[in-house]
Amino acid sequence: xSDSSRTPIIGRVDFTMMYAAHDxxxxxxxxxxxxxxxxxxxxxxxxxxxxxxxxxxxxxxTAEDVALWPPLRAKLTSASEEAVLDEMExxxxxxxxxLERIDTSLGAxxxxxxxxxxxxxxxxxxxxxxxxxxxxLPLVATHLGPDGWRAFAGHFRKxxxxxxxxxxxxxxxxxxxEATQTRVLKLLPPPVRLLYRRVWAxxxxxxxxxxx
Length: 212
What we know:
Elements: H1 16-37, H2 44-67, H3 69-73, H4 79-108, H5 111-173, H6 178-186, H7 190-210
């Protein structure tokens, strides 16, 4: 998924951060797939990328389950809208066993199962993210609006916390387009932008070089 492969939701709610996160998950899955195809499923780089990917996906989905879907569900007006949220929750649940299988396979030194499961995870998560963008986010825009989205963003910031920000923002913007980087950084307070440019991004880059 990328800026060119979707129709952005343009309106009262700015979903820049959601799209950027979805792009980052797709990027990580692509890199994991490429590493597995190259016979590097057990490498330090794959293990490091997997830990970061799994952590960010867990935070992302937990925040939705706790602070986005419940307030949205309370405002829905039809059974078809309710069904969309039911599907979001089911899809989250279907992804969990795949994450556990990759963890187990990495621990057991089983590159074949890692590669197979990364393919399954790529299929499942890509479909889920597109479904979310096409069906769930319009409901957020309609029923929660900017105030509801800001409340969710505030919960997400608290979940990441100060300790999570140095990993989250460089991970989010790794290999992102200039347009995405510009949009995301404009959403951050100036002190956070400065920390990102001067400290967090360089540190992330150094760590990435050590595991490649």
